[in-house]
Amino acid sequence: MRQSTAGIAPACARIGHRPTQGSNSPQPSTQRRSDQIDNQGGSPIVVPLFLGHDITREQISDFCVTALANILRISRDRVDISTKFSRLGLDSAMLVYLMMELEEKLDLELSTDDFYDHPTVEALSRFLVDKRAIRPAA
After folding, report:
1. Do 34 and 47 meet the contact criterion of CB atoms below 8 Å apart?
2. Bridge partners of 43?
3. Which of 22, 56, 61, 85 could serve as 90's disulfide partner, Cβ 3.0–4.6 Å?
4. Which CATH class, in words, describes the domain spanning 34-134?
5. CA-to-CA distance for 4 and 108, rounded, in angstroms?
């Protein structure tokens, strides 16, 4: 059963998340400009909105690093894929935001338990690739 996200709206608003409206909303473009600025070059980080069906672990890992850097407001090079999310400074509200981003991008249903069971970008990206591979065709 999918967990309700109604109570997280204030927490998500604090970190700049605007959840998508219902399933009847028009499809977004394939990229969006992030509200965050890349600390090294001063240019906005472009994040793909949908990563497609034939996605690799490396692509998922790269997306997770970009999303974490945006959420934590740090540069991408400071996100170590083998460091636990809690050690990177991710709190529960930020974790929910990351979960919602991944659900939207990967077209998967996730729970917060998935992040505790797979507490690093490296472990989570392996899990997500496996989960995408075994999901039933729509």
Report:
1. yes
2. none
3. 85
4. mainly alpha
5. 15
Continuous H helices in the chain: 9-14, 57-72, 85-88, 92-106, 112-117, 121-134
- Nearest residue to 113 (alpha-carbon basis) of 1, 20, 6: 1
CA neighbor of 103 nearest in space, from 37, 33, 11, 17: 17
Domain range annotation of the chain: 34-134
Of 53, 51, 93, 50, nearest to 72 (Cα)? 93
pTM: 0.62
Name the DSSP letter for residue 39.
T
**Residue 49 near residue 31 (C-beta atoms within 8 A):** yes
Tokens of 112: 């917060």
β-pair partners for 33: 46
Quote the tokens at residue 36. Answer: 């965050």
Residue-wise pLDDT for 73-110, tens only, equals: 999 999 999 999 999 999 999 999 999 999 999 999 99
